[in-house]
Specification:
about 90 residues; alpha+beta; Fusion Protein Consisting Of Minor Coat Protein, Glycine Rich Linker, Tola, And A His Tag, Chain: A, Domain 2; three-stranded antiparallel beta sheet; 3 helices; elongated
Length: about 90
């Protein structure tokens, strides 16, 4: 997952120009078939971080299917919280 995020996240140009950094907390569900769904911001970010939130949601929404969680040997829907840190170097 971290490799995928590292390869696909593009720091938003406007966020670079304004030197905006921060951590975006996303909540998402992994469905029984492994699909990512209902990606949303968990903790409201500062207004100037909107570009970071949009980029995080874009990339996570496009993730390939995961291995679904299992309970008693049966695939189940699972909620996941994912922090994504944006830091300029």
């Amino acid at each position: 997952m971290m490799n995928y995020l590292g390869k696909h996240i593009q720091y938003p140009e406007r966020a670079k120009q304004t030197k905006t950094t921060g951590t975006v907390m996303l909540e998402l569900y992994i469905e029984k078939d492994g699909a990512v769904s209902e990606v949303r911001e968990l903790k409201k970010s500062a207004p100037r971080q909107e570009d970071l939130v949009a980029e995080a949601i874009r990339v996570v929404s496009g993730m390939p299917r995961w291995m679904p969680a299992q309970a008693g040997g049966v695939a189940v829907r699972a909620k996941f919280v994912l922090p994504i840190k944006f830091k300029l170097e």
